[in-house]
């Protein structure tokens, strides 16, 4: 039996090791956000003023999409309270940073901070955890049919769908949690509707042709970039009985300049252990984790994680294994024997219809 520890256990072990100053909020991170706001507004103004060919327009769309994603990463750390402390300023700035992706700050705190962080990789309670074999058996016929398609085809479709998964999941979370806001329900509705009103307003102002390059394509690119990280954060890890960040999370590595542009979002193990510490300091936290538990820390390059994601099926089976319902092959998860250089599977006899 594997030994798990909860977050408090790790925090207790590392607390004395981590310098006090890294616990302070880092308002200077907002300068990065300001730079992205300037880039977004400038690109949109140029696109509005000039009639450019498709290639140049697409080039601007890529810059915008990249900026939308980066603003989302900043919004994430702002709403964890690691940039500014005062709640109303935190929510306002978090909402602004998340505006390109139209995420309500209050909804995000409920869905991400309170639920995902507290119940990471808990089959029932984590809203971001992938479904298990038992859940698949209870799913509608169409879902069960989709999981019978060849693995490579499913991987292709799911990678393609990363271009809208974040926005779609945000809407799902909105309708999952909106009932729980009670007296604040109207405010959360407004936080979702205002950004959409701005983007739809932009459509009526610039016309469909320009809007596709100014907002729609960047939104798809932004979705893909944030989902490229999010889908590798936990989906190669097992479901776990204890919220142990060294078992249920993966840190990915990217070139240093991408870490700078993406606000160190790649450090996800560190983030789950210390969500209250600004990501700027995660390299320090990583050093400490590697000093204490080098054999348990899970990391690989983002590209390798995406390739592994492509090559393994996405249904949990026995918590530590993935199952391909098409041929009943089972694959190991990270920390439980999954070798990313040589992915193997085991044949199973299961009765699935
Ligand atoms: Zn977080
Ligand atoms: Zn996470």
From TrEMBL:
The lineage of its organism: Bacteria, Bacillati, Bacillota, Clostridia, Eubacteriales. Residues 58-301 form the Fatty acid desaturase domain. It comes from Clostridium yunnanense. It comes from the Bacteria. This is Acyl-CoA desaturase. The chain crosses the membrane at residues 30-48, 54-76, 155-175, 187-206, 212-230. Keywords: Membrane, Transmembrane, Transmembrane helix.
């Amino acid at each position: 039996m594997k030994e798990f520890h909860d977050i408090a256990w790790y925090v207790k072990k590392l607390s004395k090791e981590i310098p006090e100053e890294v616990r302070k909020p880092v308002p200077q991170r907002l300068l990065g956000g300001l730079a992205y706001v300037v880039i977004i507004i400038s690109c949109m103004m140029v696109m509005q003023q000039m009639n450019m060919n498709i290639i140049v327009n697409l080039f601007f769309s890529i810059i915008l999409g990249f900026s939308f994603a980066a603003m989302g990463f900043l919004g994430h750390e702002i709403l964890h309270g690691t940039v500014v402390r005062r709640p109303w300023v935190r929510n306002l700035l978090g909402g602004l940073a998340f505006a390109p992706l139209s995420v309500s700050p209050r909804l995000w705190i409920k869905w991400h901070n309170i639920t995902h962080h507290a119940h990471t990789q808990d089959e029932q309670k984590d809203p971001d955890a992938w479904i298990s074999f038992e859940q698949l058996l209870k799913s509608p016929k169409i879902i069960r049919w989709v999981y019978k398609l060849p693995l490579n085809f499913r991987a292709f479709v799911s990678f393609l769908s990363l271009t809208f998964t974040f926005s779609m999941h945000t809407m799902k979370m909105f309708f999952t949690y909106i009932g729980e806001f009670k007296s604040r329900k109207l405010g959360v509705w407004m936080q979702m509707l205002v950004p959409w009103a701005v983007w739809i307003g932009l459509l009526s102002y610039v016309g469909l042709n320009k809007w596709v390059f100014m907002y729609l394509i960047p939104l798809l690119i932004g979705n893909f970039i944030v989902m490229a990280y999010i889908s590798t954060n936990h989906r190669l890890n097992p479901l776990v009985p204890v919220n142990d960040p060294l078992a249920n999370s993966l840190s990915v590595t990217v070139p240093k300049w991408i870490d700078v542009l993406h606000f160190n979002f790649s450090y996800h193990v560190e983030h789950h252990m210390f969500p209250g510490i600004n990501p700027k300091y995660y390299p320090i936290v990583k050093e400490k984790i590697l000093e204490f538990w080098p054999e348990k820390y899970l990391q690989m390059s983002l590209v390798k994680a995406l390739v592994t994601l492509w090559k393994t099926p996405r249904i949990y089976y026995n918590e530590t294994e993935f199952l391909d319902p098409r041929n009943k092959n089972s694959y190991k998860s990270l920390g439980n024997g999954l070798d990313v250089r040589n992915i193997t599977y085991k044949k199973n006899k299961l009765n699935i219809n």
